[in-house]
Amino acid sequence: FCLGLVSSSPSAAQPSKESQSTPFHLEVNVSRVLVPVVVRNAQGDLVRDLKKEDFKVFDNGKLRVVTGFTVEQRGAVDAKAKTVEQMQTPATAPPDQVILPARITVFLFDDMHMSVEDLVHARQAAVNAFPGALTGTDMAAVVSISGRVNTGLVRDRAKLQDALMRLSPQGLYRRDGMDCPNIDYYEADLIENKHDPVAVQDGNQKFANCNPAVSRPQDLGGPNQTTAENLVDSAAMRALNLGRQDVLTTYASIATFVRRMTELPGQKTLVLVSSGFLNIEREALDAESRIIDLAAQSNVTISALDARGLYTTGMTASQRSPLLGGRSFQANSEYNSSAARVAENAMAELAEGTGGVFFHNNNDLDGGLRELSTPPECVYVLELPLDGIKRNGTFHRLEMKVNRKDVQLQARRGYFMPKPEKDKK
Fold first, then answer.
1. HEC profile for 78-105?
2. Are 119 and 165 spatial neighbours (Cβ–Cβ below 8 Å)?
3. pLDDT tens digits, one per residue of 102-134
4. What secondary structure does DSSP assign to 227-254, as a single string?
5. Which of 3, 252, 292, 414 is most buried by a 10 A CB count?
């Protein structure tokens, strides 16, 4: 199983012609949806004695029947089943003894979205977290979204630290900031998918501000207006396609490692270290929902750490431009704030949906990674049938209630019901 992870560099993350033209697709059972739930009392301790009848699940406000119910004691069962020989440390075990790990932790670094500054802080936090993730027979790996770094599963901290030093921002699908007009993925979605009039007007304003053929932005009209609309539409489509490929490649990489962890023994945790990414289109929501299902089926916990720490949603100095003035500056400030929150939600939903923890808005990255390296030992998995649910490409919001006072629930927020393949365009 060690070699299996080594050979799993996600081909979808390589910038080849094939990867850019092939849409991400993950085959899972679409006849049901799995809902992992972690329940804690007021003191933060895990609640382990709940039954199926204690749970109620509402799908878009309607009560749903729970057809399947299991309690996963992640890690606890394996620990009880160990023999004396299996509990030996690698240093004292016989040369031919197979040592099964009690825990497996895969640190997945999002080198496609983290800045140099975020990566430096996250790298040091990971070094400090390794001792806690490698006790006894535990094994760990350092891998990256781009597929450029992959240690395989090891017990050697030096190899993990060496891999950390080789991490660097890739930006395979990064936009050219010199485009005229300069439109990002978030605004492109507003223009092309949501037909937002404010975003369309802002795109035209950007064209007027950056195009030397327009002497004064207020004179935009006539032939210039038609030219602006065409160029804005083209720029928005380029940004939309680039952003879509970026997020789908990210999800494809996450899915690859979750799938590779399926057959591994012990308590399995994937720790996603990222600055966030935008899951604003239906294809991305579909990919996210399928990964949560796959992780639940594979008994893999996904936890996430926001490498930005305690961040501000205001525009940074690098994002400010003399070309952004007046209403355009105000609109783009709002877009920047909204995009930052959406990027955070993408990580939160993966963690909450698989029974993991999302560590964010906190500069103590050291403590965050140490916390994420230890997943909850008790997870309830509820199964909901999808019979009678229309496959119409909509997102279904889930609400969970439990027959117990003063408890906190952690569960997936919903699932995406994709259209049948023949209906997709």
1. HHHHCCCCCCCCCCCCCCCCCCCCCEEE
2. no
3. 889 999 999 999 999 999 999 999 999 998 889
4. HHHHHHHHHHHHHHHHHHHHHHHHHHHH
5. 292
- Tell me the torsion sign for CA atoms 21, 26, 32, 37: negative
For 347, residues 6+ apart whose C-beta sits below 8 A from its C-beta are 272, 274, 276, 304, 305, 306, 358, 360
Q: Tokens for 94?
A: 């016989």
| Chain Cα centroid distance, residue 310 | 19
- Whole-angstrom CA distances from 9 to 151, 290, 345, 359 are 10, 20, 26, 26
- Separation of alpha carbons 141 and 128, rounded Å: 15
Max CA separation in the chain (angstroms): 83
From the centroid of its chain, how far is CA 106? 14
DSSP 196: -
pLDDT in tens, 200-228: 988 888 887 777 665 454 555 555 567 77
Contact 169, 111 (CB under 8 A): yes
Cα–Cα distance, 82 to 102 (Å, whole number):
9
Question: DSSP assignment of 380-420, as one string?
Answer: EEEEEE-TT---SSEEEEEEEEESSSSEEEEE--EEEEPPP
Q: Contact, 170 vs 182, CB < 8 A?
A: no
Rg (Cα) of the chain, in Å, rounded? 23
Helix (H, G, I), strand (E, B) or coil at 42: coil
**CB-CB contact of 309 with 365 (8 Å):** yes
The residue to which tokens 């400030």 are assigned: 333
The SS3 call for residue 136 is coil
Helix ranges (H only) for 134-221 are 157-165, 185-192, 197-210
Q: Which residue has the tokens 């979204």?
A: 145
Q: How many CA atoms lie within 13 A of 256 on its CB side?
A: 24
The predicted-structure confidence for 37-84, as pLDDT tens digits, reads as follows 999 999 989 999 999 999 999 999 999 999 999 998 765 434 333 333
Q: Name beta bridge partners: 386.
A: none
Element (H, E) at 266: none
Using an 8 Å Cβ cutoff, are 21 and 367 in contact? no
Of the candidates 424, 421, 360, 418, the one whose C-alpha atom is nearest the C-alpha of residue 390 is 418
CA-wise closest residue to 205 among 177, 232, 186 = 232
